[in-house]
Amino acid sequence: MRMVNLILLSVLLLSSTCHFVSAFTDGLLPNGDFELGPKRSDMKGTEVINRHAIPKWEISGFVEYIKSGQKQGDMLLVVPEGAFAVRLGNEASIKQRVNVTKGMNYAITFCAARTCAQEEQLNISVSPEWGVLPMQTLYSSSGWDCYAWGFVALSSIAELVIHNPGVEEDPACGPLIDSVAMRVLVPPKRTSMNLLKNGNFEEGPFIFRNTTWGTLIPPNIEDAHSPLPGWMVESLKAVKYLDSNHFSVPSGKRAVELVAGKESAIAQVVRTTPGRRYALTFAVGDANDACAGSMVVEAFAGKDTLKVPYASKGKGGFKRAVLRFVATQTRTRIMFYSTFYSMRSDDFSSLCGPVIDDVRLLSIRRP
Ligand SMILES: *[C@@H]1O[C@H](CO)[C@@H](O)[C@H](O)[C@H]1NC(C)=O
Ligand SMILES: *[C@@H]1O[C@H](CO)[C@@H](O)[C@H](O)[C@H]1NC(C)=O
Ligand SMILES: *[C@@H]1O[C@H](CO)[C@@H](O)[C@H](O)[C@H]1NC(C)=O
Predict the structure, then answer these.
(1) Same domain, 165 and 200
(2) For residue 7, is it within any domain?
(3) How many structural domains compose the chain?
(4) In terms of domains, do 222 and 172 share one?
(5) What is the CATH number of the domain that holds 113?
(6) Phi, psi of 158 (to 5 degrees)
(7) How far apart are CA 326 and CA 276, in angstroms?
(8) What pTM, to 2 d.p., does this model score?
(9) 165: Cβ below 6 Å to ligand 3?
(10) Are residues 31 and 175 in the same domain?
(11) Is the domain of 139 the same as that of 228?
(12) Mind listing the pLDDT tens digit of every residue in the chain (367 residues)?
């Protein structure tokens, strides 16, 4: 009897481990950098003419397979990971089915580059969720930006689609895509040390080791499926998610750079008790990315605000600030943005700004 139970148990354990192993957790998707390409016979010039020609992916519409160093007019195409990327022409899409764990939160990170002047956008989806990411604003001078997008798995298979909904006269216009990665997000919790979730920004989307421009958290990100758990980006422009491998961050391994002045804001709504006093503490600094000058971070807690000036030499460093307030509502909106726009002093074409990190909210007793 005991033996049978034991066998049953090990069968159960085995099947649950197998299930766990087959679900994707962290990193580049299979052939997510498109280094495995189509056979010559599946191509006409640079166009891929067979739906299943790119290993692990299914394509539709006008998709081109691009080699780094390839020329387009006067422009030399350079890809961030490895030597290959794809280009999504009019109404083109790429699709991959990924094994996931039902009910878990995920963040997709992918890098894209605009190649023509048009106002390009990409629709990224895992049915029934989707998000349209505008690509008008170039945040990095390399031309490549990496974007994050979050979803909750409603079944054990996620069908990820990246679609270019645009229709241009020139079918060779359309964004290049490279490096598609995914990461399980652990939903952060409030603790007795911090009423904010993920106040240190340690939980967030994948950042590519080989890219030096961080990952953008695009605008119109709501609470529930944010790729930066706990936080919302409601502004018109993205905020940039940084790691300590490539940038100076005030605390831990991750932080957020407010790259587009008042158009780049992050927020979180917290439960508060009207009449109670609170202290919102945070670090303001710079990422050591040649973003120099006078900066001001504005912090908001409901109707209370604090402006924190920071003189950046663009070489890393930070200071701490505290906003004390008395809550007037049962829910208080905590928000941060940068008062001014800044540009990197090394290339004058990349937006940059102050970094914030280690945001804590505590209830304080009256003395
Ligand atoms: C996804 O899951 C299916 C069925 O559970 C399995 O056959 C397949 O090998 C898995 N794919 C990957 C890439 O793990
Ligand atoms: C990252 O860059 C290094 C050095 O250039 C290279 O050897 C490595 O293959 C790259 N990794 C990826 C995932 O492209
Ligand atoms: C984005 O793609 C999804 C899935 O294909 C679709 O349901 C949605 O309508 C699309 N959104 C836009 C604005 O094109």
Answers:
(1) no
(2) no
(3) 2
(4) no
(5) 2.60.120.260
(6) -105, 125
(7) 5
(8) 0.89
(9) yes
(10) yes
(11) no
(12) 444 454 444 444 444 444 455 789 899 999 999 999 999 999 999 999 999 999 999 999 999 999 988 877 777 777 777 789 999 998 999 999 999 999 999 999 999 988 776 678 899 999 999 999 888 777 777 788 999 999 999 999 999 999 999 877 776 778 999 999 999 999 998 888 899 999 999 999 999 987 788 999 998 776 678 999 999 998 888 999 999 999 999 999 999 999 988 988 999 999 999 999 999 999 999 999 889 999 999 999 999 999 999 999 999 999 999 999 999 999 999 999 999 888 887 776 788 999 999 999 999 986 5
Ligand 1 centroid, distance to 35 Cα (angstroms): 21
Distance CA 283, CA 197 (A): 16
220 lines ligand 3 (CB under 6 A): no
Q: Residues 61, 79: one domain?
A: yes
Atom of ligand 2 lying closest to residue 208 CA: 13
Please give the backbone phi and psi of residue 262, each rounded to the nearest 5 degrees, phi first: -70, -10
Q: Are residues 323 and 240 in the same domain?
A: yes
Identify which of 56, 98, 99 to mutate to test ligand 1's pocket (most ligand atoms within 8 A of the CB): 99
Three-state DSSP state, 13: helix
- Report whether 143 contacts 249 (CB < 8 A): no
Question: Is residue 82 in contact with ligand 3, taking CB distance under 6 Å?
Answer: no
Final residue of a structural domain among 137, 152, 185: 185
**Is the CB of residue 130 below 6 angstroms from any atom belonging to ligand 3?**
yes
Q: Cα of 210 to ligand 2 centre, how many Å?
A: 6
Does residue 28 contact residue 160 with C-beta atoms inside 8 Å? Answer: no
Question: Among the three residues 162, 185, 208, which one is the final residue of a domain in this structure?
Answer: 185
Shared domain for 274 and 344, answered yes or no, is yes
The residue segments making up the domain with residue 294 are 186-367
Query: What is the torsional sign of CA 202, 203, 204, 207?
Result: positive
